[in-house]
Design brief:
The chain has helices at about 20-30, 40-55, 70-80, 100-130, 150-170, 190-200, 205-215, 225-235, and strands spanning about 10, 35-40, 60-65, 85, 135-140, 175-185, 245-250. By secondary structure, the protein is an alpha/beta fold. It has 2 domains: about 10-185 and about 225-250, Rossmann fold (3-Layer(aba) Sandwich), CATH 3.40.50; about 185-220, no CATH class. A 7-stranded parallel β-sheet has the order 3-2-1-4-5-6-7, sandwiched between helices. The radius of gyration is 18 Å and the shape is globular.
């Protein structure tokens, strides 16, 4: 399918690996010019080189901590005019309700709620002026089905979801389409970290922890970054103009809900 976004300029956050890289790969395949962001310069440069070699398009890596004001300013200055924004940031650590204090919640909100909002606030006005734009926020299945040990993530990502619900409907008349993708477990470093915590707590191997989790998913496997990226690219496409303010689950059927 021709997504009709060849030549559009896309900014993808946290895209040196994992789900962000999957999104960057799919957008490059669709013909987009890429601005890739991550904190680690070495991994980011390597990912950018791989994507450039595979797809032949323009790829600009910008190493910066997008969760800080200084990092965002550096990224936005380097990015220039952006048609497509994919927000993404690693989730906060798991724990129990009594483990967290105010500073933990502020850090989670900064990374997983306020940073995406700041990027949208900075970039959507020009999208609106041009009459076209796409924003995809990578959140979590925990927005629909809270995960007890991920209380920090539950809180921050649900806050972002509420913000997007109203904002998406305000900017849609101007051709700017905003949606969220809610990943379940995918084969990424984040999954390894979560499974590692389970393995340590239960005294089992990492492979056993993965198999244990996979058995709870109707698809009986983890998702891949590549298939996640393809959904992201579709939501960024010309064909997604009537999908507004939605929360798209990519979880292999893990969340058992009718709506």
């Amino acid at each position: 399918m021709d997504l009709k976004i060849s030549g559009k300029r896309a900014l993808v956050c946290a895209s040196s690996k994992g789900l962000g890289r999957g999104c960057a790969e799919a957008l490059a395949e669709a013909g987009c010019e890429l601005v890739m962001n991550a904190r680690g310069a070495e991994a980011l440069e390597a990912a950018a080189a791989d994507i450039r070699a595979a797809h032949g398009g323009e790829v600009t890596p910008v190493a910066a901590d997008v969760t800080s004001e200084e990092g965002r300013a550096t990224l936005l200055e380097a990015a220039g005019e952006i048609d497509i924004l994919v927000t993404n940031a690693g989730g906060p650590p798991p724990g129990m309700w009594h483990d967290w204090d105010r500073s933990d919640f502020i850090a989670a909100l900064d990374a997983n709620m306020l940073t995406p909002i700041a990027l949208m606030t900075a970039l959507m006005p020009k999208m609106m002026a041009r009459g076209w734009g796409r924003v995809v926020n990578i959140t979590s299945q925990s927005v629909k089905a809270p995960i007890p040990q991920l209380g920090l993530s539950n809180a921050a990502r649900t806050g972002l979801t509420g913000y997007v619900a109203g904002t998406a409907r305000q900017v849609a008349p101007h051709g700017v389409i905003v949606n969220n993708i809610l990943p379940g477990i995918h084969a990424t470093d984040r999954a390894d970290a979560l499974d590692g915590t389970v393995a340590k707590a239960e005294g089992i191997s990492l492979e056993e922890a993965r198999a244990q989790r996979a058995a709870t998913i109707p698809a009986r496997r983890y998702g891949s970054a590549a298939e996640f990226g393809q959904m992201c690219a579709f939501l960024c496409s010309e064909h997604a103009g009537f999908i507004v303010g939605q929360n798209i689950l990519l979880d292999g059927g893990g969340v058992n809900t009718t709506l």
